């Protein structure tokens, strides 16, 4: 399973994600250290993708 490793530039990444996936809200993309799984779960539900697909999508931005 791929691990999400984003720190420091999360606000930039979040902006690009929201531009590509308008259905995601700030609450869906709220990043708190140690709670990545919750955020990824919300994104998974909204987009209908697997966890690995979501992580790859985020890393590609």
Automatic annotation (TrEMBL):
It comes from the Bacteria. It holds the Pfam family CsbD. Signal peptide: none annotated. Residues 7-54 form the CsbD-like domain. Belongs to the UPF0337 (CsbD) family. This is CsbD-like domain-containing protein. It comes from Bernardetia litoralis (strain ATCC 23117 / DSM 6794 / NBRC 15988 / NCIMB 1366 / Fx l1 / Sio-4) (Flexibacter litoralis). The lineage of its organism: Bacteria, Pseudomonadati, Bacteroidota, Cytophagia, Cytophagales.
């Amino acid at each position: 399973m791929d691990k999400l490793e984003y720190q420091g530039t999360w606000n930039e990444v979040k902006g690009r994600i929201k531009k590509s996936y308008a259905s995601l809200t700030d609450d869906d993309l709220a990043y708190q250290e140690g709670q990545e799984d919750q955020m990824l779960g919300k994104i998974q539900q909204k987009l209908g993708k697997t966890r690995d697909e979501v992580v790859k999508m985020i890393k590609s931005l």
